[in-house]
Design goal:
With 1087 residues, the chain is an alpha/beta fold. Among the domains are: 162 residues, Leucine-rich repeat, LRR (right-handed beta-alpha superhelix), CATH 3.80.10; 105 residues, Phosphorylase Kinase, domain 1 (2-Layer Sandwich), CATH 3.30.200. 20% of the residues lie in helices and 21% in strands. The strands form 7 sheets. It has a 25-stranded mixed β-sheet, covered by helices on one side. The chain has a 19-stranded parallel β-sheet, with no helix packed on it. Helix 13 packs antiparallel against helix 19, helix 15 packs antiparallel against helix 18 and helix 18 packs antiparallel against helix 19. The longest helix is centred in the last third of the chain and has 31 residues. It starts with 6 loop residues before the first helix and ends with a helix. The N terminus is likely disordered.
Length: 1087
Amino acid sequence: MRCGQPASRVLSGRARRPYMRVWDQVCISMSPAILLLLLPYVLQPMPTSFAQEWTSPFSNETATDRDALLQFKASLSQQSPALVSWNTTSDFCHWTGVTCSLRHKGRVSALNLSSAGLVGTISPAIGNLTFLKILDLSSNKLQGEIPSTIGRLWQLQYLIFTGNSLHGGITDGLSNCTGLVNIILDKNHLTGEIPSWLGGFPKLVALILSKNNLTGSIPPSLGNLTYLQVLYLQYNQLEGSIPKELGRLKNLQWFALLANHLSGEVPEAVFNLSSVIGFGVDQNDLHGTLPSNWGNNQPNLEFIYLAVNHFTGNVPASLANATMIDTIDLGLNNFTGRMPPEIGTLCPSIFSFDSNQIEASTMEGWEFVTLLTNCTWLRVLSFRNNMLAGQLPASVGNLSSTHLQVLYTGFNEIYGNIPPGIGNLVNLQKLFLSHNHFSGVLPSTIYRLKMMRALGIDGNMLSGTIPPSIGNLTLLQIITMDNNNLEGSLPSSISNLQMLSVATLSRNAFAGPIPKEIFNLSSLSYILDLSDNHFNSPLPPEVGSLTKLVYLNISRNNLSGSLPDTLSNCQSLLELHLDDNSFSGSLPTSISEMYGLVVLNLTENFLSGAIPQEFGRMKGLEELYLAHNNLSGQIPMTLQNMTSLSQLDISFNHLSGLVPMQGVFAKSTGFLFVGNNELCGGLQELHLPACPVHSRKHRDMKRHVVLIIIISTGSLFCVILVLLSFYWRRKKGPHATTMAGAAISFLDDKYPKVSYAELFQGTNGFSGSNLIGRGRYGSVYKGTLSLKNVETEVAVKVFDLQQSGSSKSFVVECGALSKIRHRNLISVITCCSSSDSKQNNFKAIVFEFMPNQSLDKWLHYLNPDSDVSRPIPGLTLLQRLNIAVNVADAMDYLHNNCEPPIVHCDLKPSNILLNVDFVACVGDFGIAKILSDSEGDPVINSNTFTGIRGTVGYVAPEYGEGGQVSLCGDVFSFGVLLLEMFTGKAPTDAMFVDGLTLQGFVEIAFPEKLMDIIDPVLLSTDETYARKPQHRSNGGEEIENAITSVSKLALSCTKLTPSERKPMSDAAAEMRKIRSCYLANLPRANN
């Protein structure tokens, strides 16, 4: 239901409503919750038991309730202003949030403290309010467990604890409250399984347990809740199949199981629940086909969410009979065949079937679009990444002109002209026709769409020019026109696009001067890519107005003249690419003032003079390309002091003199100098001649000898050099564009903006007392920020820009984090790229604070609350199994649910963080690699082969041999991690010498002597397992079985040959199975 929606509308479910994921946004404050969800049941006749007289076990009933309330207040760690009236001098029935019964004087019947700013735990004394019918403590900061004494509240009807930080399991005491109508415990940190006794509440109407950390399977007993109308279990870690018993819930209206690990097929009885309004099972591992008659018995169905599963077969035409449907989301499945034209007779507001295998080769396959033109409510139509071919029907221009806002057709096989009728869709905000085979001229009618915010036509075969009418699109924020055959000059009317933040026009045939108006667009803050065109004339000084731009690429054009000094005003630039033009003159020393620059590429120009000494000031610069120019003089010694510089290419210039020996010059793979014949000295590996110390005559003679040698081998040498040049240009070219594009996607309006000053203040000036960790590229501090007017604890990762690779690590991590969202991946809040108080470059990423810090500290006896090394209670077996499942799920997501896949490259205990409930989140994506997309273009890194990526001991052996980064490398690291978690020994332990590894150590002991090498802390912390074999309880066998299974899995993940390792999806499924088997036997083990 919607926040603020009339109760009558909730009950009827009939009127057409705008799109919203109802199960993702439940109204949680007491008043809306009661009015919208609970009120219909409050107004039902009071149960007989409520009308009966209550005989209190206490001699003074009034004092009992008052004392219980005061004890509740006393359990709070800080006093809330809402409880000011709670004192001993006033009548407690008039206290804020307290309602007393009219029938039973002085007895509390309702306690409503929603959004009251409560901090602390819930006092067990709450169980003394034995006349309580409504208990609403939602939207506070309550912690701890739900007290078992709540089971005394046998009259309780409404229990609402949503939006707190409660942890632990759902208390068994609650099973006594059999009169409950609503149980709302969502948005907490509850763990454990869903109790089967929840199926024994005969009056239950709403069960909302979403957004917790619940595990195990869905109890079949929930099928006994015959009055149930709302079942929200989404965003947990539930696994197993959907019980067929849920098909007995004949009154169910809202069914949400999304974002779990559910597998198997959806029972047909569940599909056939005719009372359902919202059906959401997306983001699971479900498979199977949809019933062909599904829509025949669905008079109430409005919302269908099946995305991100493995459903196959055809989309059933019978869905057309479910005439109330408002939203259909079938994306990221394996549906095949044609889209039934009957679907077009529905009137959904959202229709999406992205990333399937839906086909269309003739106009019959496109008939569903034509029929959708009768739908006046359609707002979103998206069918990207399918197998749709042929021409886009002209009827697309007849879709809803009043409501359609989004039209996505990209990544199909559509050809022909773009229908000019699209210009009729006057409210269209996002139009993406990218990566098809559209040809002809972009219809002029497109430029009438004044509500347009994003226009994507890249990757087609469009021709013609961009007319001045593009200036009509004044709300445009993103325009991608690259990889077409567009030509002509850019119109000056582009200056009207005052909200433009991304413009990619590369790989076309644009010509003429670049209009200075485009450089005056101060809104350009992410990407401006004009590369691979025919622009000419000098680069205008107005380029310095792009003070917010992160990425600028004008390479491979015909620009000439000097580089303007105003470039130094572009203080936000991370990458500047001006290579392969005709720039001349000297290198402006002002470029050295671009302190945030990470990549500078000026290759293939006619630049002359010396390399400025001032370039050494660019402390964050990591890649500098100056090859194929006319530079002369000596290499500035200041360049060797640039600790971040990892790539320097000065090939084919006229440089001479001594080559420095430190910094980038100490790495033969990072320093390219071929074609500078008068360089000398440097490291021995460079094979340069020693710098001369003889007379001038001797020097002249030596030059002549060298010249003769060069001339005699010139032809062959030139061929080799041309090939080398081509190789390096191909290798370096795409890298910067794609890397910046990935990082830029992170800098979106949905992320709050924070300044250096806010971070400085929130961390007490990056005080040592706030320091909670150090890594290879920086330090992490605990801090407090005001986010949405709420003081929030955060972790701030500050990058050490003096460290080589740190700036790139920042870009890569931002890019990776912008693409991912998973409950077991560290939650990023925002990032900051600016200057500190001394105008030094500053980069930081702000994360959700994880109070239990890293797994490494728990495995190796460090107190998470301080830097002092001292023993702490160890992790139990169940905690370790849970953490292993969390990590496996996160890696499975990165490998199999991200497009393209992401390789973490540095999985180890110190990069695994634990929240208050010991739920694990994988962090530190500083050296992650996003694998190539379907066309082979690298998304972040263009390096196909690499040296050692990661940390010694955890890194896959093939990386040490220069092997290719792959998913198998992460699997190896995961296997090592498992072995460390259960043996307590790090792979770098001093005992591993003379070829012995952690894997070999475990393999020798497996399986008979495995328990002899297991972490003794694990055994001592588990109540069912004593240190000595003769003291083992009945649970010892189950512990041995679990540890043996984990070790077997770990060893299969650490095979030396990558192809022999399990894929991450199989490893994750196996880990969940191991945990389930252990949990299933816990009751027997504890008897």
